[in-house]
Amino acid sequence: MATGGLKSLLSTAITTGVTEARARIFGHILNPTGQKSAHKILRKKLIGEKVAQWYPYDIKKDDPQIMAMEEQERLSKLEMLKRRGKGPPKKGHGRRAAKRNKK
């Protein structure tokens, strides 16, 4: 009867020793109590640089000629819409103002 208890005690000691050695070799963290830990999240690589490298550099943001040309296109389109009567309303005459005056 005592041999069964000794055998189980010896086997648990061996398994804990093996798990500790495995953790030391492979750089794992032991968590015998099973409590939540942030180690899994902290050991991940940061992905910000990879995401930034995926998108190409936009030269339009630095070139003042392209920015001026885009602004000129926007203003000409707005002028065309105004001539057709489809432009933005004057300040205080929009949809929200009309709704407020309706009451």
Q: Could you describe the 3D structure shown?
A:
The longest helix has 25 residues, at 2-26. Helices cover 63% and strands 0% of the residues. It is elongated, with a radius of gyration of 35 Å. The model has no long low-confidence stretch (mean pLDDT 86). It contains 5 helices and no strands. It holds the Pfam family MRP-S33. Keywords: Mitochondrion, Ribonucleoprotein, Ribosomal protein.
Question: What labels would you give this structure?
Answer:
single chain, 103 residues, mainly alpha, 5 helices, 63% helix, elongated, ribonucleoprotein, Ribosomal_mS33, ribosomal protein, mitochondrion, Small ribosomal subunit protein mS33
Brief rundown of the structure:
The chain has 103 residues and is mainly alpha-helical. Helix content is 63%, strand content 0%.
Give the biggest sheet: none
Oligomeric composition of the shown chains: single chain
Rg calculated over all Cα atoms: 35 Å
Q: Given the C-alpha coordinates, what overall shape results?
A: elongated
Low-confidence stretches: none
- Mean pLDDT across residues: 86
N-to-C series of helices and strands: HHHHH
Q: Distance N terminus to C terminus?
A: 92 Å
Structural class assignment = mainly alpha
Structure annotation, total helices: 5
Helix content: 55-70%
β-strand percent reads: under 5%
In total, how many beta strands? 0
